[in-house]
Every structure is written in C-alpha cells, then in structure tokens.
Amino acid sequence: MPAARNPSRSPLFRLITIASSGLGSFILGLWGLKFLLGNQIAGMPSETIGAVIAALCALAASLAAMSFFAGVDESSDYVFNETHFDKLTGLMARPAMVGKIAEAASATARTGKPVFLIDVDIDRFKQINDAIGYCNGDALIRAFTARLKAALPNDVVVGRIGAGEFAILYPDHQVDGHLEALIDRLVNELMQPYPLPSHVQSVNVSVGVAAMPKDGYDPVALLRRSNLALQNARASGIGSWAAFHPDMGKVAEHRQWVESELHVAFERGDFALHYQPQHDMLSGNVVGYEALIRWRHPERGMIPPVEFISVAEETGMIAPIGEWVLRKACTDARLLPEECFVAVNISPVQFMTRDFVGIVAKIVEETGIDPKRLELELTESAMMQDRDRAAEILKQLTGMGISVAVDDFGTGYSNLAYLIDFSFQKLKIDRSFVSRMETDTSSGAVISTIVGLSRALGVRTIAEGVETENQATLLRAAGCQVVQGYLFGRPAPLVLGDAGLVVPADRAANMH
Ligand code: C2E
Ligand code: CA
Ligand code: CA
Fold first, then answer.
1. What is the pLDDT of residue 83?
2. In 106, 183, 291, 436, which residue has its Cα 20 to 30 A from 275's Cα atom?
3. What's the CA gap between 482 and 278, in Å, rounded?
4. Beta pairing partners, 488
C-alpha cells in the first residue's frame, strides 16, 4: 500500500506558512508601534524599541510554531486514519493489526492465556476482481466483511490485511467449544454465494491459524506463520484450513522456487503431455484420452502438477501454460485413433479469462481438430464462481460441438440442482469415492445416486482412479459407463505402437 500523503501539508507549504506568518507579524508589529506611538517613537530609547520588537518577534515565532504544530497534528491524524483504517470496509488495516497483535502478545505473556491469529483469504481474489470489475470487486469485499463481522462476537478484533485477506484475533476463552468447529462454520458461511449488483458470485476461502504463545510473540512473524498455514491449507483443496507447523517453512520455500522457475521452464520447453485412456464399460474399447501435464526439470526431475498448477494460477502463468496444453492436445489428437476424443483439464482461472471461448475457438481452427473430438474438463468450483457467465460459456462451447465434463464431482458443491442450469455432457466421479467404495458402503450408494441423477439429466458418467477389478465390477453394477485409472492404463507419453498407431507408451508395451 503506498504511504498516505496529505497534499495540503507538504513541507514547502509549512515553510511558507511559518516564514510568511513570522514576517507578517513582525511588519504588523512595527506598523502598530508606529501607529500607537506616532512621532514619539523617534524620541524613544533604542533599548525600549528593541525590547518591543523582540516581544513582537517572539509572538510571531510562537504563532508560526503553533500553525506548524497544528499542521503536524492534523497531518499525523490524517496519516493515522489513512494507514490504520481500510477505507472500503472501515476495518483496521495491516499496520493497526500489527499493533493489536503486539498488544495481544504482551497480554498473553502476562496472563498465559492463548490467543489465536486467524488468517482468512479469498482464493484468487485478484483474478476474480479482474474478471468482475472493480465495482463488483468492492461490493464483494464489503459483503464479505459484513458476513465475517456477523459471524464473530463484537469484541473480536478483525482487520483487512490484504486485497482479499483478513486477520482475526480470537482469544481462547471466546472460542465456544472447539476451534475446529468455529472455523468450519466460518468457512461454510463465507463460501455461500454473494448477490452482487450484476450477478451472484461464489468464492472459495482458505484459512491459516497461528497461536500465541505457542508460535511466538513477534507480531510480524505471527502474521507470516498464519499465512504459511494458509498457503498450506490452500494447497490441500477448497475451503481448507490449517494450523501452523514449523515444517511449513520448507513447503513455502519449495513454492517460492517453483514460482521463480516456472517461466524459465515454460520457455525452455520442460513441459510435456501424457495421456491416460478412458474405457467404455460396455464395449471395453478406449473412447478417449485425458491429457495430463508433466514438468521434467533438467536438474530436479519430474515435478507433479499438484506442486505447480496452483502456483501457475496465482502468478498468471496458467494462461500461457493452459493455452499451450490445449493447443498441444488438439494437435496430438491427429495422432490418436480417429474414434477417440482428447480430454483437456481447464483451470478455473483460465475459464474466467475474458476471452476464454475465443481462445478455444482459435485453437480449434488453427489445429483443425474436429470439435466433437475435444472434451474440456472443468471443476464445479470453476462453474460456480459466476454462474450466469459460466452457463453462457458452456452454451457457446456446446454450440461449437465441444463436450464438457464436470471434473472431481463430489468434492465441491456437488449440487446437481445448480448444475441443471449448465450445459454439459459428462460427470466425472472423483477418485476419492472410487477408492473408498470397497470399504465404505456409503461411497457406493453415493456413486449409484450420482449415476441415477446423471441419467435423469441425460449426461454420461465416468469414474476416475479405478485401480482394482473389484472397483470396476462395483462401478459397472452401479451403471457407470466410462472408467479411467491405473487398472486400465497409466498416463504415458505418445509413442509409435506396433500397428504404426501412435498410442500412449504403456499400451504400446501391452501390445508386444
Ligand atoms: P485430475 O484432473 O483429477 O487428474 C487425475 C489425476 O489422477 C492425475 O494425476 C492422474 O495421473 C491420477 N490418476 C489417474 N488414474 C489414477 C489411479 O488409478 N490411481 C491414482 N492414485 N491416481 C490416478 P496428475 O497427472 O498428477 O494430475 C493431478 C491434477 O493436476 C489433475 O487432477 C488436474 O487437476 C491437474 N492437472 C493435470 N494436468 C493439467 C493440465 O494440463 N491443466 C490443468 N489446469 N490442470 C492439470
Ligand atoms: Ca481431470
Ligand atoms: Ca479428479
């Protein structure tokens, strides 16, 4: 945040004020002396004249000093208000929060009673703000603040410490029950959709917690620690929270390295696509391939997507990377069997860019792929951010003949009632359900329900992460039409197979 400046109290202004008021009072004094004493002044002893002038100078100087200090006082009030309170929300700004944390820390040191510092951040707020415009962005922050305040007791200290980031100082004795329950409730409330002037906006939040005295007393270090916990929570999925742990420093260091390296890696051509087959349950044939990005670093070897996709999303690198993935997959489709489609993962950040449909259309045209052979995998959270706009984009994609699959279904909102408004062709049941279905009967029931509802909506279902025969049998029984997982083939680069066909490497191996 730039330092606040009071334009009417610049140093030059103060200098001129002091000089002119001093000089003015002196001339006025001399004139007054002459007016009162008239010609008598000529007969006065020089000591008397000197004393009177000295007294007038002192008066002038004190008036000048007063005006100077009044200016300083006013300026410092101005600066205090500018830097201590956030204009948009009226909440305390970061410097004031640092002061409050210091106060809480010294109280903790005296009483030994713990206080929690809770850092709440709206995921990808910058991108949301760019996409919806600043007016809507401001309205969102105000609505978010109102909800945050309403969810907390009145005397709990809350501040806005970043664009979409808030800090809460929560004394232990005010935590009614478990901290875990309190944060779960807070996250749940803050993630309910926000009606804005132009549309309904959904956001995801991540939360990090540091505790005094356990994590120290230094306010700046405490803020860094609660933020480290927050970064960790964010990496583990939507609406997560985490408490600070000393090991988190290493994770942050790695993220920093990834951030500094991504651009070079992209320019150097470190990225490649691997393809994983999707099998039709009924015919047993491969019907499509999911493209999955791989980063092979010349020194550090393979870096998995979970370690760099979220960094790319935060830094904006996802735009060029995502475009490259789409173009490469559409080009590779020419090498894949003609009856197969290629499925491409689309990040929510890519989906929100203004001209997403235009970029897709351009790539389809340039690569000459039949749009019917292209499937885009989108998560529910990407669609829920701005529902009206998402519905419009999906309609346009469907109109172009491109198919859309809802990825990771079951991990986000999982609300088919919302999804009814969207035009999509496939639901992809998340791996977490598949991996639990053998041991947990409720997962099986959830899968059957999803398949039933998909049928009612007229869309197909695909299950991901199928690793065992038993899972495949259960999925078949549930009515799931397409499956994907290590049981059928791991993601692999394209190589030339026996029949002269280009297929993912592991299938080529199976052909021998
Ligand atoms: P996803 O879209 O859910 O992709 C499926 C992930 O599960 C892949 O991990 C895949 O290798 C893995 N997988 C497939 N079958 C099995 C199985 O039977 N068992 C287990 N345990 N895992 C299986 P991967 O390639 O590490 O990708 C992770 C995530 O990174 C993807 O999850 C996707 O969200 C993201 N991602 C990958 N490539 C791209 C991309 O090109 N663009 C974007 N935006 N995201 C990508
Ligand atoms: Ca996927
Ligand atoms: Ca998934």
1. 65
2. 436
3. 7
4. none
Q: What is the token pair recorded at 199? A: 């549309």
Q: Ligand 1: which residue has its CA nearest to atom 10?
A: 491
Place of tokens 């030339």: 496
**Around Cβ 68, how many Cβ atoms within 10 Å?**
16
pLDDT at 162 over 90: yes
Vertex 248 angle, CA 246 and 251, to 5°: 145
At 461-482, the pLDDT tens digits run: 999 999 999 999 999 999 999 9
Q: Judge residue 337's burial from the number of C-beta atoms within 10 Å of its C-beta, 0-12 exposed, 13-18 middle, 19 or more buried.
A: middle
Q: Ligand 1: residues whose CB is within 6 Å?
A: 276, 292-293, 304-306, 309, 322, 325, 345, 347, 377, 407-408, 431, 464-467, 485-486, 491
- Residue 505: pLDDT band by 50, 70, 90 thresholds? low
Rounded Cα–Cα distance for residues 27 and 24 (Å): 5
Instruction: Please state, in angstroms and rounded to a whole number, the distance separating the CA atoms of residues 316 and 238.
Output: 19
- The pLDDT confidence band at residue 185, using thresholds 50, 70 and 90, is very high
Q: What's at 165, amino acid-wise?
A: E
Q: Which of 333, 311, 477, 337 is nearest to 402 (CA)?
A: 333
In which element (H, E) is residue 407 found? strand 403-409
Please classify residue 499 by burial: count the beta carbons closer than 10 Å to its beta carbon, then call 0-12 exposed, 13-18 middle and 19+ buried.
Answer: exposed
Which of 258, 292, 363, 475 gets mutated to test ligand 1 (max ligand atoms within 8 A of its CB)? Answer: 292
pLDDT in tens, 74-113: 655 655 666 688 999 999 999 899 999 999 999 999 998 9
Distance CA 124, CA 468 (A): 37
To the nearest 10°, the Cα dihedral for 309, 484, 401, 504? Answer: 80
Is residue 453 within 8 A of residue 474, CB to CB? The reply is no
Does this model's pTM top 0.90? no
